[in-house]
Amino acid sequence: MGIEFLCDVFRQHADDEAVVWKGRSYTYGWLLQELDQWRARLEREHIARGTVAMLEADFSPNAVAMFLALAERGCILVPLTEAVQGKRDEFIEIAEGEISVLIDGDDNAAIRPFDRRADHPIYDRLREMDHPGLVLFSSGSTGKSKAAVHDLEPLLDKFRVPRKKLRSISFLLYDHIGGINTMLYTLANGGCLVTVEQRSPDAVLKAIERHRVELLPTSPTFVNLILLSEAHKRWDLSSLTTVTYGTEPMPESTLKRFCEVVPHVRLQQTYGLSEIGIMRSKSRSSDSLWVKIGGEGFETRIVDGLLEIKAKSAMLGYLNAPSPFSEDGWFMTGDAVEQDGEFLKILGRRSEMINVGGEKVFPAEVESVIQQLDNVADVTVHGQKNPITGQIVCARVTLQQPEEPRQFTRRLKSFCRERLAPFKVPVKTMLVDDAQHSSRFKRMRRVG
Questions:
Q1: pLDDT tens per residue across span 101-139
Q2: E strand or H helix that includes residue 415
Q3: DSSP tag of 443
Q4: What's the pLDDT at 210?
Q5: CA 287 from centre of chain
Q6: How far apart are CA 347 and CA 363, in angstroms?
Q7: Angle at the Cα of 220 from the Cα atoms of 217 and 225, rounded to 5 degrees
Q8: Largest CA distance in the chain
Q9: Is 57 in a helix, a strand, or coil?
Q10: Is residue 275 within 8 Å of 148, Cβ to Cβ?
């Protein structure tokens, strides 16, 4: 159990690159030595098994080593990044953090205790099993952040079966299930984790060229930013073989355009949630939104058009919210889907669906159409209450170049009427200059 299988991989690849950080390479042999040092330091600091450790870091050599050392010691890890700095104190309170492990920009670590004893019943279960834990906060893009508690052993078990060795970009964040999945997959297969200091299109694609990266795990929003910036024209992406995308629905128009500009790259839709981990997936084709999900340890079913999942790696529960599991143990994702044989199409969250006089509108479909309109840089579609129809469709649009608002609105409505049912055409259009995505490169649908 634990991380011993990872240490075996590290020993087999001792001279290979494990992490690239700030342009410098760190080998698996170095990672093994650093693990030994962290084991000794945790012993000196008297960090007990079951301690709730707030791990404040981004991907760096020591952040990787410390994650593994704390897991091996049986601690309950709560990773936090700069992306949630505004909620740091709230998250520490919710997680009942007992120590802070802060890894700074120079990769130096400081450990300090909090004057608190964590006694949540879910933590007690982990301590009784003598298993390490992992607490992940949801992005909170459509509501309050929830703290999902995992038994880390089942999450680690997924990586025991050897798979393809890859050079991967650590694009998804250190406190995101996708980021942790990328890190563990890469290390478990003797690959190389290439970190980036900035998550901008040019910085990420420059790193792909420089370090011959093969895998880019990202989000539909970032794919759109690459297209908009035309960064793909400035960097050599010949090493890139696969782009995986998830975290939110992909507009079909964005997917097809990206396939055209990187025809040698396989695009694969992934599906995962903070509450269940990342599932194995297979897209019908690179330009298709139909995907087959599941694999060992996962079962799926559809109830009233909504996806439900039973997973060995499912969380134990929330620290600060009611259980989202059905009476027979299935996680209710809230994602509306269509089914075609073994394949599913993820339409969007039920909570984001717009109900126009009883007709269902999913934002991604409308966004996909509007993004094909000339001069549109970005768009976010949401619902707004209406006394007659219940809700109306609204669009927040960022333009590439300034345009007279009334003229643009007329163009948009005319364009949409030719491609969408009347009830799906935006009734209100707002032109905005501010970013429409979060620091996790996920579309923000909440409107103040």
A1: 999 999 999 999 999 999 999 999 999 999 999 999 986
A2: helix 405-417
A3: B
A4: 97
A5: 21
A6: 9
A7: 100
A8: 69
A9: coil
A10: yes
